[in-house]
Here is the input.
Amino acid sequence: MLPPYTTNEQHVRLFELIRYVYGRLHDPNHQLKIVYFRGEHESLLGWLAPGFEMHAVFSPLVALETVTLCIDRILTYIKREENQLFIMKCEYF
Here is the structure.
């Protein structure tokens, strides 16, 4: 099995899909919080919340329930390791 997104065309397709999901989330005419898109080559989930925005790409064969579980685990990990992953306080010296 070849690794995903090795050609320029694949990169362009992926970024166009991410741009599409982003556009749906930020469309002023629709107040969407979650956008899920399943295409031929991948499925994408975009989630807009007050404290964060997350975009994730999965295989098109992954069930929505699995996507939701994975996103929940990622968010739990990020929250638990927040101080190690992000600069929460900037102390000047």
About this structure: Residues 8-84 form one domain. The radius of gyration is 16 Å. The first strand starts at residue 34 and ends at 38. The longest helix spans residues 8-25.
